[in-house]
Prior knowledge:
Elements: E1 2-9, E2 14-20, E3 23-30, E4 46-55, E5 59-65, E6 73-75, H1 81-84, E7 90-92, E8 94-97, E9 100-102, H2 104-120, E10 126-130
Parallel strand pairs: 1-10
Antiparallel strand pairs: 1-2, 2-3, 3-7, 4-5, 4-10, 5-6, 8-9
Amino acid sequence: MDLLLHRQYFKEGTNSALFVNGHFICFMIELPWLKNKRQVSCIPEGIYELKPRFSNRFKDHLQVVGVYQRNLILIHPANDALKELEGCLAPVSQLSGIGKGWSSRLAMQKTLSLCHQAIERKEDISLIIKGPSLTLPKGEGM
């Protein structure tokens, strides 16, 4: 299963929308892009493997595998990227600002449910992260 994350970058944080098969799942919040610096930057655009993970702190969550020069990048609940994330991603049900959202636990459960269904079907799970699309003015083709 491929999860597609469409990002919008801002100085204060990164807001994204998560899709599977063209269907909107939830929003995601992250730290701003600061050249992939550990604990203060979102991760680079690219394709990553997702694996289920459990910890006492976050309970059931996901790990993003294969991030260049980074490890233990997680997808876990959080509602404020600057206060609660150290390079990880957080699903939210609704955006409330740049790098901020509401009802993260609900969005996390929705995301986990989709991923667990794929795991039961013995499918690999990929996270494809893309930045903003290039929009050309009318009449200016490539």
